[in-house]
Amino acid sequence: MTTYKFNRESRLLTPGHFQTVFSKPIRFGSRHFTLLVTPKPHTLVSDKNNSIAKNRLGLAIAKKRVKLAVQRNRVKRQVRESFRLNQDNLPAIDIVVMVKSGIDQLDNKAINQELEKIWRKIIQRHKN
Question: Left, alpha or beta for 117 (phi > 0: left; psi -120 to 50: alpha)?
Answer without folding.
Answer: alpha
